[in-house]
Amino acid sequence: MHAKSFLEDVSQTIDVPVKYVVITHWHWDHVFGLQSLPFHSIG
Questions:
Q1: What is the DSSP letter of 32?
Q2: Per-chain mean pLDDT for the chain
Q3: Which InterPro entries does the protein's record reference (predicted)?
């Protein structure tokens, strides 16, 4: 799952909690699994 991998990478990179995700464009590989993330998305 892309979203799970993303969260694992982020948690290893920064020490502050993520509150938002900004979507720059609507390609499937940028939004796949977005609904499973535990924070708000902005697009």
A1: T
A2: 78
A3: Metallo-B-lactamas (IPR001279), RibonucZ/Hydroxyglut_hydro (IPR036866)
